[in-house]
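Need fresh eyes. Consider my entry:
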Amino acid sequence: MSKDGRQTTAAIIAACNEAQTIGNVLRQLLRAGVKQVVIVDNGSEDSTSEKALAVHGMDVRIIKFHRALGHDVPRAIGAIAALRAWSKQDLAALLFIDGDWGGSFGPMLQAFIDEAQAVPEAIVGIDAGSLQHGPLAEAIRSAWLPVLDVASTCDKPIPCLLPQYVPRTVFQSVSPIWLGSPGAWFAATVQAGWVWRGFRGWNIGLVGNRSRSVSHNRRLAELIRLDARIAATHLGLQGDHISVLSTLPGREWSALIDYASSFCTGLKL
């Protein structure tokens, strides 16, 4: 427990060229009571890491890669690093957020953490009811809601959305490597008996909605659909025979596996 009686949570942030926003993200984490942070600098060519280290009052660990590792892989690396860094402390959970969020989202994030800590037996994500309109939101709904319906989750938490709160005890039965694919991660945790809950009080618009190119959004929508398909396949909901490695070639799995095997974490890997 922290001094104020709340459970200790470490944040994991994958950031690429987020020098303009990372300072605000860390200050909002402080407002939410989170002081331990791992930032995986995912091929930044700006001063993302330097800006992060300039924020006072936090224990910030930087893991820097000179090339981008693709979606989600840095998140898995950050989880492994955090579990290792604070292995001897009373760390209750990992909190996954993005490094490009704007706005004054600290109080909303604190409410998210408080609700998650009230259900320590569950992984907590953003409920589908928080989705706004647009092509990406529709891609998420069409890809993930059928999986969640069949998987019989209590709510409709979307595994590819952040924030996401994961109790540390999850990693006693599920490898953090699976965080490199939201679909594989969701399937592995469900198969291990973990419950997912959805937080309904998240205002996606409050953290900003950075505009992306049409081609970027198209690629991201395809990735969302592939991850949902991987979840469905691993849960036996469809008859495909697909591999995370072959289906998601844009993710640097070799870098993740090398990082995970470079030290002994005492975790299920």
